[in-house]
Predict the structure.
Amino acid sequence: MRVYETMIILDPDLDEDEARSFTKDRVVDALEKLGAGVRDVDHWGKRDLAYEIRHKRAGYYVIVTADAEPAAMDELGRQLAIADPVFRHKTVRRPDKEREST
């Protein structure tokens, strides 16, 4: 398994409870069903965007760190791409040395 970090920008019209619920129900649960181990979920809250997305100037930022196989992260990316509250998402693979440190 490799270490991945996914940043998700959600619709700012969601309140904090809705954003946390989406993260738990749609992201964390999906990763666990795909056999990934979620290391951390960091809710950054609402932040300004660099440019307008869907006529909005802000977004709710969440970062999820997980140990997963590449296929699991591909499936998560597919699910996030079709989820209505998700403005943008980006997944990066963390250096291999992080995998060995845990």
User: Anything to note?
Assistant: The longest strand covers residues 37-53.
